[in-house]
UniProtKB/TrEMBL annotation:
<feature type="compositionally biased region" description="Basic residues">
    <location>
        <begin position="167"/>
        <end position="177"/>
    </location>
</feature>
<dbReference type="Pfam" id="PF13843">
    <property type="entry name" value="DDE_Tnp_1_7"/>
</dbReference>
<protein>
    <recommendedName>
        <fullName>PiggyBac transposable element-derived protein domain-containing protein</fullName>
    </recommendedName>
</protein>
<dbReference type="InterPro" id="IPR029526">
    <property type="entry name" value="PGBD"/>
</dbReference>
<feature type="domain" description="PiggyBac transposable element-derived protein">
    <location>
        <begin position="13"/>
        <end position="116"/>
    </location>
</feature>
<feature type="region of interest" description="Disordered">
    <location>
        <begin position="149"/>
        <end position="178"/>
    </location>
</feature>
Length: 215
């Protein structure tokens, strides 16, 4: 394609076009105040139209040639610019260089911005006043709170059921006795039977109890 220098030399309104070998993609360069590059699978230079631009040399507005792909883009670009503006108000910044995380956060911001626009449209149809509608920050906060509170276990009110109390009692019974209780039980066995009893206690505790009896 023509270089920027060649396009600038030809003047404003000049253009250049290239089509891929499979005839599916068109590249267009157009000289406005600067060089505009566009790629499309829908349109190319097509039907040449005109746009009005201010001429510094003539000090008047003049009409210059403009490819159809540029005219079509300018016709429908309002929604794209508006969405980019809304997303730039409260961007989701991530402190990472991993591209999957950045892409996911971008898509989340994209979905929130579109959802807020749909919310404003529905609020307008419902006849809500402007002061009654949520701004972008309040809308994002509301969505975040809903996500945090979803699938959250709720605390049961009132006294616990009998099954729960039985479970607590079983856990208390299964608790291992402390060292003093073990020694007292061994002392009782040694003073009454005076010989070893095969109980499920540690050898250290048994020896400590036997030493106390011999004193």
């Amino acid at each position: 394609m023509k270089t920027d220098k060649e396009m600038k030399k030809e003047g404003r309104g000049s253009y250049d076009e290239r089509v891929s070998q499979n005839d599916e993609v068109v590249l267009v360069r157009w000289q406005d105040n600067g060089t505009v590059n566009m790629a499309s699978t829908h349109l190319g230079v097509g039907n040449i139209g005109t746009v009005r631009r201010w001429s510094e040399s003539q000090k008047v507005h003049v009409d210059i040639d403009c490819p159809e792909v540029v005219l079509d883009y300018n016709k429908y670009m309002g929604g794209v610019d508006k969405l980019d503006f809304i997303m730039s108000l409260y961007p989701m910044r991530t402190r990472t260089k991993k591209w999957p995380v950045r892409v996911i956060s971008h898509f989340a911001s994209f979905a929130l911005s579109n959802s807020w626009l749909e919310y404003l449209r529905d609020a307008n149809k419902a006849g809500l006043l402007r002061k009654e509608t949520l701004d972008m920050m309040a809308f994002q906060t509301d969505v975040a709170n809903c996500l945090l509170n979803s699938n959250k276990p709720q605390k049961k009110r009132g006294r616990p059921s009998n099954d729960n109390s039985r479970t607590v009692k079983k856990k208390a019974l299964r608790r291992a006795p402390n060292r003093a209780e073990e020694i007292r039980r061994h002392l009782l066995l040694l003073t009454t039977t005076n010989h070893y009893q095969p109980l499920p206690f540690t050898i250290t505790v048994w020896r400590q109890a036997k030493r106390l009896v011999s004193l």
